[in-house]
Amino acid sequence: MSRFEVRGLERDKSLLKDLAKRLAVDDKAAKALRSDLNQRLEPPSDERGSVWQWLRSSPLVGFDWFIEREFSTGRKVDL
Length: 79
What we know:
The protein is an all-alpha fold. The protein is about 45% helix and about 0% strand. Helix 1 (about 15-25) packs across helix 2 (about 30-40).
């Protein structure tokens, strides 16, 4: 077991304490509660990887684009 601190609303304090106590028992009911919480808190499957899917849907995917910049040593400045 470990002790940790969380930030939340004052009105949720007793709820979070009760939740932590139930999960700490680590029995069959706690495992079911943990599983239910994990399902409710994870993002919907259609939201996972949405940025990756958006990037892969670009028409530039697979385009071999090489941009070369002109080399410059900079300019001389008198201070």
